[in-house]
Amino acid sequence: MLSVHKITNKEDLEKAFAVRHRVFVIEQMVDSSEEYDDDDHQCTHFLALVDGVACGTARWRFKEKGIIKLERFAVDAKYRKTGVGAALVKAVVADLPYAEKVMMHAQLHAIPFYEKFGFVAYGPEFDEADIRHFAMKLVL
User: Fold this and answer.
1) 48 near 4, Cβ under 8 Å?
2) What are φ and ψ of residue 70, in 5° steps?
3) Pairing mode, if any, of strands 53-62 and 67-75?
4) How far apart are the first and last CA of the chain?
5) What is the Cα 52 distance to its own chain's centre?
6) How far apart are CA 38 and CA 61, in angstroms?
7) CA-CA distances (angstroms) from residue 6 to 11, 13, 92, 121, 130?
């Protein structure tokens, strides 16, 4: 059974960090110094579970006045294309307070996925942690 919940305790946050480590640091070879940041303490984090196993995570944070940024969407390879990513996007977006703009930085391969939820790429392509990205904004 798939479930997604807002993280409210240190144990679940550690599970989310473990997912991020597996996906970003091990699989995508992102330097851990780029993966973990001070923003982790200012974010609202989410954890996805399948049959009790932590397999996905995401976070959102206030960026500038009126802007919310969605970040660190990660799903373990074994659980991709099973609905975990979609459940995370839906849970995160449903939790957002009003904002003038909701945006994210999406890896190129993930752009079609986020477009299904109303996100639109804008601006030039750019490099983040040696991975090609586009900024995306949520258009309601």
Assistant:
1) yes
2) -90, 135
3) antiparallel
4) 29
5) 20
6) 12
7) 12, 10, 8, 26, 29
C-alpha 37: how far from chain center = 14
Cβ of 37: how many Cβ atoms within 10 Å? 12
Domain boundaries, the chain: 2-138
DSSP state letters, 93-125: HHHPPP-SEEEEEEEGGGHHHHHTTTEEEEEEE
As given in the structure block, the two tokens for residue 103 are 């945006």
Query: pLDDT tens per residue, the chain (140 residues)?
Result: 999 999 999 999 999 999 999 999 999 999 888 887 777 888 999 999 999 999 999 999 999 888 999 999 999 999 999 999 999 999 999 999 989 999 999 999 999 999 999 999 999 999 988 899 999 999 87
According to CATH, the topology of domain 2-138 is: Aminopeptidase (3.40.630)
What are the residues whose beta carbons fall under 8 Å from the beta carbon of 61, sequence distance 6 or more? 39, 42, 43, 44, 68, 69, 71
